[in-house]
Every structure is written in structure tokens, then in C-alpha cells.
Amino acid sequence: MIPYPFTYHRPNSLAEAEALLARLPDAKLLAGGHSLIPAMKLRLASPAALIDISRIADLSFIRRAGDTISIGAAVRHFEVADSEMVHKAIAALASLVEEIGDPAVRHMGTVGGSVANNDPAADYPAAVLALGATIRTNQRSISADDFFTGMFSTALEDTEILTAVDFPIPKRAGYVKFANPASRYAMVGVFVAETAGGVRVAITGAAPCVFRSSEMETALAQSFAPDAVASIAIRPEGMNSDIHGSAEYRAHLVTVLAKRAVAVALRSSGGPHG
Ligand SMILES: Cc1cc2nc3c(=O)[nH]c(=O)nc-3n(C[C@H](O)[C@H](O)[C@H](O)COP(=O)(O)OP(=O)(O)OC[C@H]3O[C@@H](n4cnc5c(N)ncnc54)[C@H](O)[C@@H]3O)c2cc1C
User: Fold this and answer.
1) Helix, strand or coil for residue 3?
2) Quick check: CB of 110 below 6 Å from ligand 1?
3) CB count, 10 Å around CB of 218?
4) Where are the beta strands (DSSP E) in the chain?
5) Where in the chain is the domain with CATH 3.30.465.10?
6) Mean pLDDT for each consecutive 10-residue tract of the chain (274 residues)?
7) Class of the 60-267 domain?
8) Where in the chain is the domain with CATH 3.30.43.10?
9) What separation in Å is there between the alpha carbon of 30 and the centre of ligand 1?
10) Ligand 1 centroid vs 54 CA: distance in angstroms?
11) Cα separations in angstroms, 83 against 80, 113, 146, 237
12) From 2.170.150.20, 3.30.43.10, 3.30.930.10, 3.40.50.620, which CATH number describes the 7-56 domain?
């Protein structure tokens, strides 16, 4: 492989990172490097500069304000999995994070990197969308419904830095995924949440981008029980199809996992509402 030159920068503050991003042409933010470095090795990405934001203290926090858990962009997956606050408030989020990859992945991967990358098989986007989270950047706040725009694509501008994700604490929530046995990425993952704004169901892994099922949401709003979604069939058109599973298989999994996610939500006791 022919090496190519790039510069590496490690700012200590968000302001420094912003200035570098504005000044350096063709720069990319580096969080844990778990997606970006392999992409660079394969030459799918070849930035001229890397801005390593992994040690910026302002991006590294988990805190609760009222009925919201706010997680800084540089927080690594294991920190979320280890957080008693997250376990108590949003148990479904804690268990989602516990099942990401393996310990090495959880010790390098970050919330910001996962959400900004929007891999079709990533787990976090399902939680962000189902909980109706707000994505905070150095420039604005973006609702989850407006954030995920397509495969590996989000509403973030090139000069924007994701700083935190605010997760509203749901009344109850559950996440179940059928993991690829090699990577642990979701073949399909379904996150069901009953929030102050109603029931939300988000599906990852099945299609090129995380999406909501309005049919399941309507059914669960009437009766929050596994049987409510049992007969809702998801159409396979447009679903992912690869060596791991056909579109039909993934569509079938959505219904199966949605039922299980509702059952998990019913057993959960997280959230301020009991
Ligand atoms: C073997 C393996 C198994 C995995 N299994 C799973 C799994 O089961 N489930 C799952 O969900 N994920 C899984 N992952 C993904 C992993 O957990 C990381 O979340 C993901 O790779 C992103 O990595 P990162 O945080 O290091 O970000 P990076 O690789 O550093 O960055 C990813 C992208 O996001 C951009 N970016 C990073 N931070 C920001 C920011 N704050 N603002 C704006 N843009 C930003 C970068 O410029 C880059 O384009 C796996 C990864 C590997 C390598």
C-alpha cells in the first residue's frame, strides 16, 4: 500500500478544534478512530489532516439535567456501559452499549463517532431516534428526526462538531438486536420507547439508514404489548441484503425483534416515571 502524508493535530479545547477545522483544508475529526482509521487504510477516506478530539475535556461528560441524560461526544462506549446514572435512567441504552462489539471496541469507540458516522448497522442511531434525542453541535441543536439523512450520512456540515447527545429519559424502553456473530454489529436492532411525546420505534441494521415504523408506533400507542406488533409485517423492498442475510430475512427479523423489545420495555423499571 502506498503511504500518503497527512498531518495530525490534538487540540485541548473545543475552541481550538473549531479553529483547526475552519483553517485546515480537507480535515477530518478523529474520535476513537474505529471507523475512520480502517476507512483510511482502505483509502475510502484520505483526509489531509486529522483533528483528534478524543482528549477534549469539554466533550467528555455524562450528566443528568431534569429528565435528560446528556452524554458528551468523546465519551467512550465502556463509560456509558459503566455509568450507574445511565443504567438507572435509561437501562435500555446501557444494555445497548454493553452489546457493542467487544471490549476493545467499547474502549475506543465514542458516542459522537458512532452517531456522526451513522453506519447502517450501528446500534446508537436506534436509541437516538427512538428516544427522540437532541444532537448538540458547536453551532446548533438538531432533532433526531432531522439528523439521520441516509447511509453514512447526517445533517452535520463539514465544519460542524457534534458535542453531545441529549437523551430524554423514557417512561419505558427496550432494545433487542440480532447481532452479526463476527462484528456484533446489528443485522437488525429494534429500539422501542414510550416517551413523554408518545411511543417511538426505531430500526437499525435492516435498511441503509435507521428508520421509524409509524405502523408499529400507532399499534403500540393503543396497546403497549408484544402482541400489538406481532402481525405487523415490514416490507422487504429497500432492505439491506448481503451474505449475512436477505432483505426478506431482515424484514422478518424486524417484527420478531420488535415483539421482544416491547417485552423488554415492559420489564424495565428505568426512568423517572417508574
Ligand atoms: C470490530 C468492530 C466492531 C464493532 N461493532 C459495533 C457494534 O456491534 N455496534 C455498533 O454500534 N458499533 C460497532 N462498531 C463501531 C464502533 O463502536 C464505533 O462507534 C464506530 O466505529 C465509530 O468509531 P469512533 O467513535 O472511534 O469514531 P471515528 O472512527 O474516530 O470517527 C468516525 C466518523 O465520525 C466523525 N466524527 C467523530 N467524532 C465526531 C464529532 N464529535 N463530530 C463530528 N464528526 C465526528 C469522524 O470524522 C469520522 O468521519 C464496531 C467497530 C469495530 C471496528
Assistant:
1) coil
2) yes
3) 14
4) 7-9, 27-30, 49-52, 62-65, 68-72, 134-137, 141-143, 148-150, 153-154, 162-168, 172-179, 186-195, 198-204, 211-212
5) 60-267
6) 86 97 96 96 94 97 97 98 97 97 96 98 98 98 98 96 98 97 94 95 98 98 97 95 95 98 86 40
7) alpha beta
8) 7-56
9) 9
10) 12
11) 5, 19, 28, 39
12) 3.30.43.10
Please tell me the distance between residue 210's alpha carbon and the centre of ligand 1 in angstroms: 16
Instruction: Establish whether residue 183 lines the binding site of ligand 1, counting it when its CB lies within 6 angstroms of any ligand atom.
Output: yes
The answer, yes or no, to whether any atom of ligand 1 lies below 6 A from the CB of 136, is no
CA of 168 to the centre of ligand 1 (A): 22
Q: Any bridge partners for residue 264, and if so which?
A: none
Does ligand 1 have an atom closer than 6 angstroms to the CB of 30? yes
Could you read off the pLDDT of 132-178 as tens digits, one per residue?
999 999 999 999 999 999 999 999 999 999 999 999 999 999 999 99
- Going from the Cα of 223 to the center of ligand 1, the distance in angstroms, rounded, reads 36
C-alpha cell of residue 110? 465514542
